[in-house]
Design brief:
By secondary structure, the chain is α+β, with helices and mostly antiparallel strands. The protein is 14% helix and 30% strand. A hairpin with a 4-residue loop joins β2 (17-24) and β3 (29-34).
Length: 266
């Protein structure tokens, strides 16, 4: 009863990890707690050793013999110069709290004050984004770089709703002198809802080329700026390289003409 709620607290280290030893004076029992920090990569088990009397020896003997020694750790055996040992694992005392320091000072032993040490700041590692390998959407692929479990890319919802079904359409040809490609014509569609582009090749008489999609709808980057292509990169009469194909824009429909006239300053 005289020592009820009186606990000696030791700040210790073992194998580079921090622990807190609690020695309960009421019944000479010991409890060991792990010290955890955010993102330390360790399982957050708070109790390393549940409260119990700590035996001096712990070897398992032959049947019929004592399994655990009769002697247990007492506070009189604890000193700052010696390590604390729990079932074969050694713990180095780094400091104690004020109550523990005063308690041992009354018994002629000196212990320095201590506390839990903050971990050293982690070295920030710059995320290096690997080049896109061409498979799938580039924004989807980036999900595997930034998250262990990739998340679906977020779209600009209001932009998507305001520009739904709004498409800029251009007629284009190849920038080439190859005879069989000179007369080929294409329809370049820019979808304002999500800045995607598709290229369709219409039928040409006696060309020998079957009409159909030439480039699937997707986001494509400008060859020079490496930024996603926007309407300002698609001037009528100018050139644009889409997915390594160099196109010359011949014209556009009326809606695209009006849109470019009112939005080119943006």
């Amino acid at each position: 009863m005289d020592h009820d709620r009186k606990v000696l607290r030791f700040y210790v280290k073992s194998e580079g990890f921090q622990f807190i030893w609690h020695y309960f004076l009421a019944d000479d029992t010991v409890e060991i707690r792990e010290v955890h920090f955010a993102n330390d990569g360790r399982d957050s088990f708070s109790i390393y050793l549940k409260r119990q009397k700590l035996p001096e020896t712990f070897a398992v003997n032959q049947p019929g013999q004592n399994f655990i020694g009769d002697r247990y750790l007492t506070c009189n055996e604890i000193s700052f110069e010696n390590e604390l040992v729990a079932y074969g694992r050694a713990f180095t005392i780094c400091g104690v709290d004020k109550f523990t320091q005063d308690f041992f000072a009354g018994h002629g032993k000196a212990f320095p004050l201590g506390e839990v040490e903050d971990p050293s700041p982690q070295v920030k590692v710059d995320i290096k984004v690997p080049p896109h390998n061409g498979f799938g959407n580039e924004e989807d692929s980036l999900g595997y770089v930034y998250d262990l479990i990739p998340k679906k890319p977020k779209i600009d919802f209001f932009k998507y709703v305001d520009n739904d079904s709004k498409v800029l359409r251009y007629t284009a040809r190849f920038n080439t002198k190859v005879p069989e490609d000179v007369e080929r014509r294409f329809i370049v569609s820019f979808y304002l809802a999500n800045d995607t582009i598709s290229v369709f090749e219409p039928a040409q008489k006696n060309s020998g080329i079957i009409e159909g999609p030439f480039l699937r709808r997707d986001k494509y980057k400008h060859s020079e700026t490496q930024q996603f292509i926007t309407p300002t990169d698609l001037p009528v009469g100018g050139d644009i390289k889409i997915n390594t194909y160099n196109f010359h824009l011949l014209g556009c429909d009326d809606y695209t003409t009006k849109f470019l006239a009112t939005h080119t300053h943006e």
